[in-house]
Amino acid sequence: MNLLRIPVALALLGASALAGAQARTSYDLNEGRVRFTVPPDWAAIMEKTEGNPQLVVFRVPDPTAEGSEDMASVTVKTQALRGTATFGGLVQEEFELSKQQTGYERDPTGAGENVHQYFVQRGPTRYLVHDRFRENRGVWVHIRCQRPLLAATPATWNQQFDAACQRVVASTGGGA
């Protein structure tokens, strides 16, 4: 009878381990002043959650880019606004930095207040980059969604990526 309990106990232990291994979807930066959520299949590949600025970078699964150096990613970066650091100044600084990237070309279809959409060249691959900026409780928030423009990528995947990025922006409390 005791021999039957061992497999049951192991099965329960395995199930609880799997439940604990679920992907993290909720994040916060700047001592909880900025909170956001991401899809469970996005892997955080870099986190800096102390000091100023703070950021989390996510690798977004892209079947077309697998096995290559190309990668779709989303970055949420924050900076507490203090002293001379102003929202508009930080936005302008990011605009200028983006223009210095190889192959920079503004995409007029992604224009809007506190929105900057553009193309850059990374090695042999062209990327679409979409930056959104907002202020949240005294913190500057920069959300960057970037994906490689690969001919084999299905249009549905691009639409899903863009929609997921929009949901991350919305989860920060910002709509722009």
From TrEMBL:
UniProt signal peptide: 1-21
Domain of life: Bacteria
Keyword vocabulary terms for this entry: Signal
Keyword Signal part of the UniProt annotation: yes
Origin species: Dokdonella koreensis DS-123
The protein's name in its UniProt record: PsbP C-terminal domain-containing protein
